Amino acid sequence: MLRRWGILLALGVALAACTNTTYSSAYYERAFTGRELDSYGAGRDFNTIVIGDPFGMGDAAFGDALRAQLIRRDAYRDINYTATPGESASNYKLVFAFNASQTVGLQTLCRDAGSVATDPPGPEIRMSGALCHGDVMLTFLDGRLAATPAGPDDEEFQQFIRNFMQQLTPTFNPRRTRRSGAGA
After folding, report:
1. Domain boundaries along the sequence of the chain
2. CA quadruple 76, 95, 68, 157: dihedral positive or negative?
3. Largest CA distance in the chain
């Protein structure tokens, strides 16, 4: 009986941790396979553009902190998420916008990321992200963290980013089925 209560308590804590986050507007182009990061990022530079700063630490410092978190998250893949990709980089990129002033259109992050204006830090963190092949969007996701973590090293923010990346770059394309060629 005590074990059952322990499991229920752990489940309740896990669900409570998730209630501050929402993810929406998930979109996956049929061309997305779920293998892009492994195929075009492993052992290479991966262009990672970060727009905005939800903590007020400066755009460059926050961008570096986020890229460092992504590198730690994907250490097994040996991807170098960087703002200055070298010759080893492919034509793929990740683009993230934090606290955009206006709704970000599906193709905007890939085609015209420089046009995205951002708001200063506020009581929540809003995030839009896209995986792009050149100027073509392959995946897109919006997320919201209804809290203000202390900074990018805060566990709540790191969990938000881990969950965001799992949904932005899943290991398969949810739009594809076996009949339509998934896994091919």
Report:
1. 21-168
2. negative
3. 59
DSSP β-ladder status, 21-28 and 45-51: unpaired
The 10s digit of each residue's pLDDT in 78-117 is 899 999 999 989 999 999 999 999 999 889 999 999 999 9
Amino acid at 3: R
Please list, residue by residue across 114-140, b when 16 or more beta carbons sit within 10 angstroms of its beta carbon and e when fewer do.
eebebeebeeebbbbbbbbbeeebbbb
pTM score, whole prediction = 0.85
Is 21-168 assigned to CATH 3.30.160? yes
User: In this structure, are residues 109 and 131 in contact, taking their beta carbons and an 8 Å threshold?
Assistant: no
Percent of the chain with pLDDT over 90: 71
In the numeric block, which tokens belong to residue 115? 């046009």
